[in-house]
Structure formats: structure tokens, C-alpha cells
């Protein structure tokens, strides 16, 4: 065990969570077989879409976008959704097994520590998938996006978006308190990212009415926001996306925290 | 007379993976595994006649289950010859299947979410049974095994003992000539064990069905079987009647006394202290020389017991006794 | 003699399917939840193609209704395979844990028994959403219904056969449940995109190593544009995969260790 995990530093309340994230990250490094699976899946999807966009462009129905842009868009959006770990499964299991009762008395917030673990795991997965995604997209699209400076903006936006996703997935896990099973909420979350975030098809290609609905929801900021940086270097737009992510982040974090407090109080009443 | 089971120089080798430790070990194992061979059975030879009830005993890992799985057609052996009802099990699995029944204590053939009766009716199809014959036999076994009240409940709601009774019926419905039972009493409490033993014994006595029964519980073999084959490390150690084994090796009990007093001393014929701890004494008792009743009386006269248990000696010990006996012979 | 045996075997398969179905339905609430949930899940996923074709109309001659039929056939085929022969999804685990024992001592085909002894309610949700999509595609009239059934049956059979091949690798490789499931899902992924986008070597791979062609493209083409040649090709493909599955499983059985491999710690 490293010093970070055992040292007692009263002046640094965030230090505990950093230590938790660190441990989770080290554990994530060990899980290589699953990592290989994710990297292959990422490559498979990019391969298929490289074929799809190539054909669409050859048919001349794509307007101003190039296949290279669209593939990089997908590489970025897949990176954002594949990096956050499925912590709702662990949260659900904590409730089901009653383990949560043992974790509550610790001097760290229960959900806070699960989210910190999520961040730690996300850091490892995200780093690996960033490298592999870069390689896949470069190989399959034949090079960098037309304006590669956009990629510089992807990094902060993507990290922000994936972090928000971790908090959202923690919220999904909390639904197990009421429904016993968190998977229905997870399905809804996953499909919302997929459809309203514009995971595979950029929102630009959506019917206007659907695109405008999607634009008002957090999923577009999380998925389409970073992805759009593949279409060019747009600092203003990036700033707007970052603003939206922070605003949504504040709202969602507060909502999840309030739900967690209400839910865990309910747990006390029921006696675990 | 044709033998029910004939086994000659049977051998079975398993390849055991030595798993790599550490990072990515599992992944590397996918491509190149390091294996080494372990003999589960070596040069095993025996013969069982129709109608015999044979216990197949030995400590864990002795090769009992492996043998029974070769005989019932599940495993392919690596050496030797086997005939079960004149058939080669792993080559004529289908023909043999109609004529044998199996109960594996740790596997189930019952459908978990359905009442056991549904499995029974499916089994009629599996064994190509005539509908009228099946109905008659089913009614007979449901009656004999006391399943009446269990039949409308899904299997998942049954206790382990109730489930085992259903497993037995499932294996008997097609009236097999040989019934193989692999640890059928494993995990059962004392009462359920006794019920299962009685059912198996009585059924076999009335029908003359051949039984081959593995267990690492000496009680199972004493109550159900007439003959016992002991194997150890994959080899035949002993093949004799249960009666002879009882005289030779299993006429002993293991008695543990927990007492208020720190120490218990006894001087009785055939009683030996095998383990001692403060307030606890474990005794090996030859019941031919001192009966359990006399022993208990002697204990009560000396100490105030807090707890007292009388058990059969563990299988491992019997095998050790047989083994050292066999070694001592020239 | 053989006719008699065939009749008995068919009776067994029918009885097995009936018991399997009854077991799936035994937990009624869970059954409907899984069915409706999976249906919604699939339809929301498919909405992507509605958005896509709303904007692009066609991909090298492939239109929205073709996508409906393709997705419908693949989804229903997969659904039927896991609803009626869901044991295939657990075959690798059963091989390693030794759970094939009861099937091996009984006088019926152990492979059929093993795959037919489990059903997943979510599979019926796949069938429901799949047939719904074929229905709304608007290209299927009442006379094509037998063709739809044929296409779904072909797709389900190839799914089953490839599942058996992949999962049977556990006879040689040991614990590969996760890997086997991942590979199986990869097959499905490939068959859910317009086949017209694949060309050259990739197209060859999709019809051989990865049977995406036999799971989706060929069967769905039977519905859209029937030809005896396609039917013959689809049947030949199925036959090849079925043969491969049987041979691989049989070869594996010789190495079956009834769970002992991991039990022995010498």
C-alpha cells in the first residue's frame, strides 16, 4: 500500500477521495482482458462506420463533411461513452447485499467514494482508449482531422463530459434503492446518450425539430459537444460546451447528492 | 452370467493447467498453457455382478467420481477396458443411456423453476416411455418416495433433502438396470441422510437393481451396501464385503468430550486418547471391547460433560489404517 | 427402426421446447418485464436508422425498409435462438463446470438437450421488436409470411451453430465465458449494418469467418427479393455451420473433464 492511502492528513478533505481514486485506478490497470475487449470493440465500430461514411460520401449526399471528419467525430464520442465505468452495478450490489450498511459509518461519503473510484477507473480507461482511438481513427480515416487543432480542445471537454457521465451513472445506481434493479435506468441513460447525444450520427444530420430538442438536454453537451471539435478548431463553441457541461454538472451533482441523502435516510429508517 | 460391470486396467489422466500468476497471466494462458498430467485412476480392475450393491469409497480426490463418470459414459478413459451391461460406455452412450440411471449429488437434472413432475414427464420422452407405463410408474414412485405434497411446488422451493428424493425418482422412472449414485447424500443433514439411505436400500432390495454408490461418508456405505471397494490415489486398495470391513476397520467410534474439568483420564480396554486440549478430549473407541454405553457411563462418573459427540472415524483414517495394513503385508 | 427413432427424437425435441417455454413463463412478471424492456431497447436503438435514412435516403441502393427487414430478421433470429435454445449462451460455463453430466448419461442428443434446456425471456422481446419492424417495413405482404418465417429460422439456426462453435472452445481453452460472449456479440454487430457498404476482402470475411452474411444479409434478401439461388446459398451456409458445430462439439466431448480439471489440486 502506498503512503497516500494510509497517511492521515486532516487539512485536506479531498485527499481521501484522491487516495480512493488512486487505488481504483491501480486496480483498473490490472484488468487487461476487459481492456483488450473494449479496444477491439472501439476498432470494430470505427471500421464499420468508416465503410458507411465512405459510401455515403461517394454517393454525394453528405454535403460539406468529409469521411475523415465524421470518423474522428465517432472516435471522440465513443471515447467519451466507453471511458466511464459502470459503477451503477457496484452501487446496486451494495444495496442488494446490504454492504452499504458497513460503508456508511466511514468518515467519507458513501456515494462520494464510489464516484471517486469511478473517476480513478475512468482515468485509466480513458487514457488507454484515447491512445487506441487515436490510432484506429488515424488508420481508418487515413490521417488526422482536417483541422487537428480541434483535438487539443477535445481533451478538456472529453474529460469534463466523461466525469459528468460518472456522476450520472452513480445517479442511475441510486435508482436501485427504489427499484431493486438499476438496469432499467441504465438502459434509458445509454439510449439517451445514443439518440439525444448523437453518438453515431452527428446532430447536424438530425431532423431540425429533434436536433433542437436534443440541444436543450445535457446528453448533447456530453457527447456531441466534444465530438464537434472534429469538425474544426472552434474555441468559442468549446467554451460554450464547457459552460453547458459545468452548469449541467452543478445541477446533476446537486440532484444526485440530494437523492443520495434522501435514499440513504430511507435506508436508515428501514434498518438497512 | 454376464457381469453388470467389468473394468480392466482402467486409467484416466487429466491435464491440469498450471496457471500463470500476475499481470496478463490469464491472457497469456489463452495462447500457450502450461499443463502437466495427473493420473486420476491407474490400473483399476474389478467386476460387479447384477444385483450387487457396491460402495465405492475413498477420500476426496481418490478417483471415485472419475471412475463412475467413465462407467456412465461421461468421460473417455485414457487406458483400459470397460464393459457396462456388455457395452462400451463412451462409445455406445445412447444404448447404455436407456439402461442406466444416474444421480449426481452436486448436479441436478430437475428444472429449477418448474415442479418436479414436469421434469418427470420430459424424462418419459427422453427414455421413449409409453405414456400409460410412465403414468403407472410415476404414480408408484411418487407414492413410495412420499412426493405427493411436493409435486405442485417449483423445485427451487424444495429443501435439499426433498430435492434429492425427486432426483432419485427422476433417475428411476425408466427402471434402469444399474443405478449410479455419486455422493447422493452430500450436504444433507442427519435426518435427510437417513431417509435417502433407507429409500435407496429398500428400492434396490425389492427390485434387485445393481447399485454403484460413491461417498466419503462411511455411514452411507454401512447402511446401503453389501460390498465395498476402497480406492486411494486412483488405485484399488481393498475389495471386500461391508461385513468384513466392519469387523476389520470400522468397528471404531470417535468420541469427543468437552468437560468443565480441564483434563479427563480414562483407563478402559480399547480406548485411546487421540487428541487432547484443555477442557476437550478426543477418544478412539474399539466398540468390540468397550461399548459406547459403557464409555459414556465411565465419562459421567469422572467429569461433568458440557458436550459429547459420537461419530464414525473419518474416511481418511480408515484408508490410512487399511493402507498401513496393506503396506505391512509382504 | 430409424423412422421409429426419428419419431421418438422429434417427440423429445417438442417436449423439451414445451418444458423450456413453461420454465421461461414460470416467472410471469420477470418475463413481461424482460420482453417489453428488450423491445423498447431495440426500437430506441433502431431509431438511429430512422434518423440516418431520413437524412440520406439510401446507401448504395439500400433504403430504410431494407434496414427494417435486415434488423427484423437478425433481431428475431437472435431472439428465437436465445428464447428456445438459450443454453447456448451458457455452454462454455457448463462445459467448464461439468454441468453436461446429466445430458451425457441420457439416451438423447446431449448437445440438443444442453442448448434446449434454457430460455431467455428477453429473446421474445427481440422477436417481438424484430417482427414489428418487418411489419412496418411495408414490403411484406401476406404471401411473403412463409418467407419471413423461413428467413428468421435460417438466421436463428446459424446464430445457434456459430454460438456452439465459439462456446465449445471452452473444451480446449477453459474459462472463456466472457470472451465467448464478446465474440458472439461482435458477429451480431457486423450483421446490423447495410451490407452494401462492405466490399472486397471484408465482404468475403463477412460470409465466411464471421457469418454475418448468413445471419443477416442472405436471409433478409430472401424476404425482399426471393431467388432459389439465394435460398440454396443460405441453406448451404447453414449446413456448413451446423456440420462444423456438431464436429467441434463432438471433438470437444472427448476432452470433456466433467469439472474435474479445476477440481484437482495435486
Commentary on this structure:
- The complex is a heterotrimer of chains A (272), B (330) and C (266).
- By secondary structure, chain A is an all-alpha fold.
- Chain A has one domain.
- Chain A has 13 helices and no strands.
- The longest helix of chain A is centred in the last third of the chain and has 36 residues, at 235-270.
- Residues 1-9 of chain A have low confidence and may be disordered.
- Chain B is α/β, with parallel strands linked by helices and 330 residues long.
- Helix content of chain B is 35%, strand content 30%.
- The model of chain B has no long low-confidence stretch (mean pLDDT 86).
- Chain B is built from eleven helices and 13 strands.
- Chains in contact: A-B, A-C, B-C.
Which helices and strands occur, and which strands form pairs?
The complex is a heterotrimer of chains A (272), B (330) and C (266).
Chain A (H helix, E strand, L loop, with lengths): L2 H4 L6 H18 L1 H27 L8 H16 L4 H11 L2 H4 L6 H32 L7 H26 L1 H4 L3 H14 L11 H8 L2 H10 L7 H36 L2
Helix pairs in contact in A: 2-7, 3-4, 3-7, 4-7, 4-8, 4-12, 5-8, 7-8, 8-10, 8-12, 8-13, 12-13
Chain B lengths: L4 E14 L6 H7 L2 E15 L4 E5 L6 H8 L7 E6 L8 H7 E5 L11 H11 L4 H14 L15 H13 L5 E5 L7 H18 L2 E6 L2 H7 L2 E6 L2 E7 H7 L3 E8 L11 E7 L2 E7 L5 H11 L2 E7 L3 H14 L2
Parallel strand pairs in B: 3-7, 3-8, 5-6, 6-7
Antiparallel strand pairs in B: 1-2, 1-4, 8-9, 10-12, 10-13, 11-12
Helix pairs in contact in B: 6-7
Chain C lengths: L1 H25 L1 H29 L1 E2 L2 E2 H21 L6 H7 L3 H4 L5 H6 L5 H16 L8 H24 L1 H4 L3 H14 L9 H8 L4 H13 L3 H26 L6 H4 L3
Antiparallel strand pairs in C: 1-2
Helix pairs in contact in C: 2-3, 2-7, 3-7, 3-8, 3-12, 4-8, 8-10, 8-12, 8-13, 12-13
